[in-house]
Amino acid sequence: MTTPTAARDAAPDARLRAFYEADETVHRTGADRIRRQLALLRPVVDQAVKPLTVLDLGCGDGYATERIQALVDGAVHAYPCTVWPPAGPGRHRVVGVDWSETALARARARGLETVRAALDTGTPLPFADGEADVVVMSEVVEHLVDPDAALAEAYRVLRPGGHLFLSTPNLAAWFNRMLLLAGVQPAFSEVALSGVYGRPGREVAGHLRLFTRRALVEFLTARGFRAIKVTGAACEALPAPGRPLDRLLTRVPSAAAILLVHARTPVRFAHPSPPVYVGRAGAAASALSPRTPAAPGGSPNAGRRGPGTRSGSRRTAGAPA
Length: 321
Description:
- The chain is 28% helix and 17% strand.
- It is of the alpha/beta class.
- The strands form two sheets. It has a seven-stranded mixed β-sheet, with helices on both faces.
- The protein contains eight helices and nine strands.
- It has helices at 4-21, 31-46, 63-73, 101-109, 147-157, 174-181, 213-222, 243-248, and strands spanning 53-57, 93-98, 113-116, 132-138, 158-169, 226-233, 258-264, 277-278, 284-285.
- The protein has a single domain, classed as 3-Layer(aba) Sandwich (Rossmann fold), CATH 3.40.50.
- Mean pLDDT is 79; it is low at 1-12, 80-89 and 284-321.
């Protein structure tokens, strides 16, 4: 039997799912962002000593994933070409992951390997702990109801020392600062799925979360990522008169239109662990090795070991970490 509370809680998710399955919903991001993100990814691919597994979480129609595939296929391999039979001799593996079957059908039409999975429902992604070398999240975190769950899963599937490449619109972009001063709703923000209200533009993108550079860095740090580097990208949707300044301000990430992040998971064998994230459904996802979920209902800090904590000792719930 469905309770009124359960029905109410399910309704927003149902509307979001219908929105992302609609044919008219855009599943692709800007060319400048893709070009800059590929430039960040290239050194990782070129310096690989074994075939990489790259997961594009929230791949949409596969437009960017296809370019990632082309990049890795064209890489000069620095390892034997017979060590990766599952993906073909010596080949890197690129997998596009999305919930929308409409988007995935378009991605498969590009010849891409795809997996259907939700990122923020508390259900683990169908990948083993540490299976991925690279996780890409391009213009997806702003669409998520529960970004904590999604980033905890991204962390889980990344190997120690793995790479996260993430991009998202910047709430504090230079033009948004001007719009707010004029009393106009900032670009990239939306008050409803039914239409665009109070801001320039006509396209509903489904943005639920918006980040400044500072907020994004703090959020990723709390989720256990380290070596966080932020750069900027331009917004092609700007009117032509504003584009030169927009391109110039990509050099100032805190004011750029788009935030591009390259972060790492630490090599973690005898190092302290960050907090364990407990999802909406109460399912816990361990953010760091050892990758053992916390007990349901337990403290997110239960079992954490911090600097100076003896091996085998445990912090009590609520003790400072």
